[in-house]
Design goal:
The protein has 213 residues and is mainly α. The protein is built from 7 helices and 2 strands. Strands 1-2 form a two-stranded antiparallel ribbon. Strand 1 and strand 2 form a beta hairpin. The chain starts with a helix and ends in a 15-residue tail after the last helix. The mean pLDDT is 84. One of its GO terms (cellular component) is condensed nuclear chromosome. One of its GO terms (biological process) is homologous chromosome pairing at meiosis. It comes from Salvelinus namaycush.
Length: 213
């Protein structure tokens, strides 16, 4: 047997004794291949040899073989010792749970800190906001210091005048359209020719749109 095979036997034997639980050859291969570079065939042969030599125990369940440490090599444990071990396991489980909860809380705080602005970023943002506020204040001061403000009363008067002018505009346009229609009834030429002869320009010629009231 090669030195590598002997090393595999030693590793597997120590592993089964340390874990002291049943494993298949596949389980041992999966657990040891990365750390020790053992091939599956080598693991199977080593476990069969250890079982043949009586160093470990072998049980067959259907088509699968299970291997585990020889329990005769371990000292007997009293009921009191088992209870003490169970109590220690319970205490350690409680500690693990508390530590895990603390880790989750720290992880949440870390994520919150990572998503928060740094002091430099915060100062830069404050400076940008202050500059923006300063600009708005300057604009407001210019507006307040202007002397050409339009009062609500003046604004209302302008709207009323506009409404009056638009109304008169429509009225006069309608009258002119009626008069031109009467003339064109006996006019031998087209409307366009008539307008050119009398020198009349329409809103369309001036590209003016009649506003709505």
């Amino acid at each position: 047997m090669s030195k590598k095979d002997n090393g595999g036997l030693t590793v597997i034997f120590a592993y089964l004794n340390e874990k002291n639980r049943p494993y298949s050859a596949q389980d041992v291969f999966n657990n040891l291949q990365k750390q020790h570079g053992l091939g599956k065939t080598a693991v199977v042969k080593a476990m069969e040899q250890l079982a043949l030599e009586g160093k470990i125990k072998e049980k067959t369940y259907g088509k699968q073989k299970i291997y585990f440490a020889d329990q005769a090599q371990f000292a007997e444990v009293s009921e009191a010792d088992l209870k003490a071990i169970d109590s220690r396991i319970s205490d350690l489980s409680t500690q693990v749970q508390a530590i895990s909860q603390g880790c989750r809380q720290l992880d949440a705080e870390l994520k919150e800190l990572n998503s928060s602005l740094t002091t430099e970023e915060m100062m830069s943002e404050i400076q940008e906001l202050e500059e923006g506020c300063s600009g708005y204040r300057e604009r407001l001061e210019k507006i307040n210091s202007a002397t050409n403000h339009v009062t609500p009363e003046q604004k209302e008067m302008v709207y009323k005048e506009r409404h009056l002018y638009v109304k008169e505009w429509k009225k006069r346009k309608r009258l002119a359209s009626d008069m031109m229609g009467s003339i064109l009834e006996g006019y031998p030429k087209t409307k366009k020719q008539f307008l050119e002869e009398v020198g009349v320009e329409t809103d369309e010629d001036c590209k003016v749109t009649l506003p709505s009231t």
